[in-house]
């Protein structure tokens, strides 16, 4: 399993939010490239970039995404946030991202998801943001009334690059991961699991590896120093 630093973009900066609330910003790095360089220096080579403004329809950080993805050769980026049409999927992948993360429209429009997944097999990752067991959309602001198990079943036949499952109720709170949720996803889906939300300790990462996660996106714990980033990179970076 690999640990993947999160680079969440808001108003041109790299931020970390508590519990998915835009009113609860705890960390801000004014130049996201500084965050990338910091993680690169420690040995990380895979990164998860999210345009939070695009996810909520409040703007775009596309230029910053391009700066990050083109910074150095040999790096792996998954990029998401407000990706809701084929043109944006194409632009993200053409810009150098290894995979594109689709959330809201993927959950709400299975026919569209099938189209893009078949057009770019193995390069589309579906983000399933979960509160409790309900999958939520539109930057975590809207409920879908759908259980995560039902969503997984609908996605099972598609040629996806993976599932990014975020336990929103754990996000940014430094209280540990929702291990039962992640274990269930890993057990019931054939797709690679990228786990997100609440990673706080090295033991959290080890437990996610044990239940079968392919990767774990880590944010708040790295940015606040709660996790020793160098130790994480040594054990879980590619």
TrEMBL record:
Keyword Cytoplasm among record annotations:
yes
Task: Tell me which UniProt keywords the record has, alphabetically.
Answer: Amino-acid biosynthesis, Cytoplasm, Histidine biosynthesis, Isomerase
Q: Does the keyword Cytoplasm apply?
A: yes
Q: Which reaction does it catalyse?
A: 1-(5-phospho-beta-D-ribosyl)-5-[(5-phospho-beta-D-ribosylamino)methylideneamino]imidazole-4-carboxamide = 5-[(5-phospho-1-deoxy-D-ribulos-1-ylimino)methylamino]-1-(5-phospho-beta-D-ribosyl)imidazole-4-carboxamide
Localization, per the record, is:
Cytoplasm
Q: Which Pfam families match?
A: His_biosynth
GO MF terms here are:
1-(5-phosphoribosyl)-5-[(5-phosphoribosylamino)methylideneamino]imidazole-4-carboxamide isomerase activity
What InterPro entries does this protein's entry cite?
A: Aldolase_TIM, His_biosynth, HisA/PriA, Isoase_HisA-like, RibuloseP-bd_barrel
Q: Which GO terms describe its biological process?
A: L-histidine biosynthetic process; L-tryptophan biosynthetic process
Give the pathway listed in the UniProt entry for this protein.
Answer: Amino-acid biosynthesis; L-histidine biosynthesis; L-histidine from 5-phospho-alpha-D-ribose 1-diphosphate: step 4/9
A single GO CC term for this protein reads:
cytoplasm
Enzyme Commission number(s)? 5.3.1.16
List the active-site residues: 8 (proton acceptor), 129 (proton donor)
Family the entry assigns: Belongs to the HisA/HisF family.
> PANTHER family in the record, alphabetically?
1-(5-PHOSPHORIBOSYL)-5-[(5-PHOSPHORIBOSYLAMINO)METHYLIDENEAMINO] IMIDAZOLE-4-CARBOXAMIDE ISOMERASE
Record protein name field: 1-(5-phosphoribosyl)-5-[(5-phosphoribosylamino)methylideneamino] imidazole-4-carboxamide isomerase
Taxonomy, top ranks, is:
Bacteria, Pseudomonadati, Myxococcota, Myxococcia, Myxococcales
């Amino acid at each position: 399993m690999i640990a993947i630093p999160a680079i969440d973009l808001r108003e041109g900066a790299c931020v970390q939010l508590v519990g998915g609330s835009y009113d609860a910003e705890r960390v801000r790095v004014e130049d996201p490239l500084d965050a990338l360089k910091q993680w690169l220096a420690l040995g990380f080579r895979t990164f998860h970039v999210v345009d939070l403004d695009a996810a909520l329809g409040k703007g775009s950080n596309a230029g910053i995404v391009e700066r990050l993805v083109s910074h150095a050769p040999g790096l792996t980026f998954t990029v998401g946030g407000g990706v809701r049409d084929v043109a944006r999927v194409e632009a993200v992948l053409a810009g150098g991202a290894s995979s594109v993360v689709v959330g809201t429209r993927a959950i709400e429009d299975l026919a569209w998801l099938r189209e893009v997944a078949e057009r770019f097999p193995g390069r589309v990752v579906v983000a399933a943001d979960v509160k409790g067991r309900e999958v939520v959309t539109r930057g975590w602001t809207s409920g879908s009334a759908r259980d995560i198990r039902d969503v997984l079943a609908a996605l099972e036949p598609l040629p996806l690059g993976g599932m990014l499952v975020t336990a929103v109720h754990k996000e940014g709170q430094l209280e540990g991961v929702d291990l039962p949720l992640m274990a269930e996803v890993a057990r019931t889906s054939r797709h690679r699991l990228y786990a997100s939300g609440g990673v706080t300790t090295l033991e959290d990462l080890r437990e996610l590896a044990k239940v079968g996660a392919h990767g774990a996106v880590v944010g708040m714990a790295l940015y606040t120093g709660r996790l020793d980033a160098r130790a994480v990179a040594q054990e879980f970076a590619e």
